[in-house]
Amino acid sequence: MNNQERQALIKASWQLHAQIETSYLADPAAKGSAEWSEKHRLLLADMAIHLLQSALKPGDLDTARLAQNLYAILVVADDFLPESGMKNFSQDLLLRTATLSQTEAVSPDN
């Protein structure tokens, strides 16, 4: 896929993002209510679009941004799969990514 195709998909994703975000913000459901799950699904979709945008962005993959996207998805998904331990894994992902970033920053090769 060339950069022009990537940019076209990213541009289209912003339209989807706007629709999902508008619906999310307009939804009056409160946490704990019966309607909360549907609103939370919109948040999960929003996070998935951000992952798509990060993955398709031309150039090198921004691994810090990738970790942030995955963290957000895991935290939101944990509410749907509470026995999965995704929230714990998401914390571990951030800690490992931060440690890796610090190691790279002090590496003599940099």
Low-confidence stretches: none
Number of domains: 1
Ends apart, CA distance between termini: 30 Å
- The H/E string reads HHHH
Shape: flat
Work out the helicity level: over 70%
What value does the Rg take, in angstroms? 17 Å
- Structural class by sheet pairing and helices: mainly alpha
How many strands, which pairing sense, and closed or not: the largest β-sheet?
none
Roughly what fraction of the amino acids lie in strands?
under 5%
Features:
4 helices, single chain, 110 residues, 0% strand, mainly alpha
What does it look like?
The mean pLDDT is 88. The protein has 110 residues and is mostly helical. The chain has one domain (3-106). Helix content is 75%, strand content 0%. The chain starts with a helix and ends with a helix.
Briefly say what this structure is.
This protein has 110 residues and is mainly alpha-helical. It has 4 helices and no strands.
Give the SSE layout.
Blueprint: H1 3-26, H2 36-56, H3 63-78, H4 86-106
Helix pairs in contact: 1-2, 2-3, 3-4
